[in-house]
């Protein structure tokens, strides 16, 4: 296999370039499926490096191909997502967002920069490894239906057929220099829940003339909260405890102190890690809403926007990647990760091909870099870029030879 030291040297040599790329991406964030300038910027760097690619996938997506010796042997996919979030950045930095109300607050600038860095390294050393590396720069990770699912439909896993896939994600609660892996179930599926409770409005002083949808909505919420906990034991499935979250973050009833509204609208999320259980909960939620509504002789509507599936890391590939990371970074810098109830659209890919999704430590307590993702002060210790691009490159090569 390619000597890891060569990858380390290459990653060090590319560090300043990749840091500048990350800062440029961070300075010019674009929302999901609108990453037009981001896509042009990445394409320009691929052209300058002499890396072949096709563009325009799902509008802004890019697929780059790097062929080593014997390119038909095996194909590994690396993923970098490109979209930002509708957040007004509060950081004070030379690379602070120039686009009002838009910010790379989830680290996708880092993901794309690391994927580009890995591409540069692998392209320079392509005479020293066998197989093909396909690099996917995808739009729209943050919103349904997820850019990964749409790029799969457009054939990103074919021509050449992808054998394994690898992706990383920033992890601000982990110190820079460290990475984390988890084999098997790692992240939850995610569905959006919308309930409209249709009551009968009226003057608050005349209770006999209205049916208060706020009371009905409250009963629905309390019953859901009672039934579904974060570790719900499902007897029909052998007593297995399946991580489950059903939570509502929005309730809106446009009434007043003495005005009962006609309807109340609720919005929430459902997350779990089993597809059979997922469908069963959908059914149970529908039944619950209908039963309570029938009790009050009103109609309510539950709309479920089915989102990303659960993310599962292939046991063999993840074990191999874990060991490779230990060799590359040292045993003390590679950790086992706990389950997470957050979601990620790379899950669509993990459902199709054996994959490994790992976490890249980007925090630095001494420097005060501790803000979480999806916050207005999120940032990274940029030293993580050298680790991220190098590790993506070595993991790709390792997967190509089956180590």
Keywords:
alpha+beta, 9 helices, 27% strand, 2 domains, 403 residues, Alpha-Beta Plaits, eight-stranded mixed β-sheet, five-stranded antiparallel β-sheet, elongated, Aminopeptidase
- CATH topology of the largest domain, what is it called? Aminopeptidase
- SS content category: alpha+beta
Could you tell me the mean pLDDT? 95
SSE order in H/E notation? HHEEEHEHEEEEEHEEEEHEEHEHEH
CATH superfamily of the largest domain: Zn peptidases
Record the strand order, biggest sheet.
1-2-4-3-5-17-6-16
Low-pLDDT segments = none
The tally of structural domains comes to 2
Radius of gyration: 24 Å
Can you walk me through this structure?
- β1 and β2 (61-67) form a beta hairpin.
- The chain contains nine helices and 17 strands.
- The strands form four sheets. Strands 1-2-4-3-5-17-6-16 form an eight-stranded mixed sheet, with helices on both faces. It has a five-stranded antiparallel sheet with strand order 10-11-13-8-14, covered by helices on one side.
- The model has no long low-confidence stretch (mean pLDDT 95).
- The protein folds into two domains: 4-187 and 310-401, Aminopeptidase (3-Layer(aba) Sandwich); 189-306, Alpha-Beta Plaits (2-Layer Sandwich), CATH 3.30.70.360.
- By secondary structure, the protein is an alpha+beta fold.
